């Protein structure tokens, strides 16, 4: 599912697949509604598919494009295994000056590692803390 967020960027959501209906799921396994928990900012999804010409057009039409990306990238995890191929390279090409929130990065690394080990009962508090830090649960 895709929608446009408050800053005019496309936001893609990923629904966690489960074999049980949602109402039958217990609270020990959080269901994530987007890629944000793995710190793949929805604002960067698809950047790797854009040509330099595409980016020129976008930047001409969307004057806050780089500023909005910079804001999003502070909560970006460049080591996330959930990143689409080519995203890190495209971000480097854009030459956006941003600083990663190190505290948020540590928390998302914990979340990702817990999911990989199927230890999701431990991550609910981390998911809430990272969402609070971003001021967005998404």
What secondary-structure arrangement, pairings included, does this model have?
Layout: E1 2-4, E2 10-12, H1 52-61, H2 65-73, H3 87-94, H4 102-116, H5 124-134
Antiparallel strand pairs: 1-2
Helix pairs in contact: 4-5
Distance between the termini: 13 Å
- Fraction of helical residues: 25-40%
Global Rg? 16 Å
Treating each run of at least 4 consecutive H or I residues as one helix, how many helices? 5
- Give the overall form: elongated
Order of helices and strands: EEHHHHH
The helix/strand class is: mainly alpha
Q: How many discrete domains? A: 1
Quaternary structure type: single chain
The strand line-up of the biggest sheet is 1-2
Highlighted features:
two-stranded antiparallel ribbon; 5 helices; 4% strand; mainly alpha; 138 residues; 38% helix; disordered N terminus
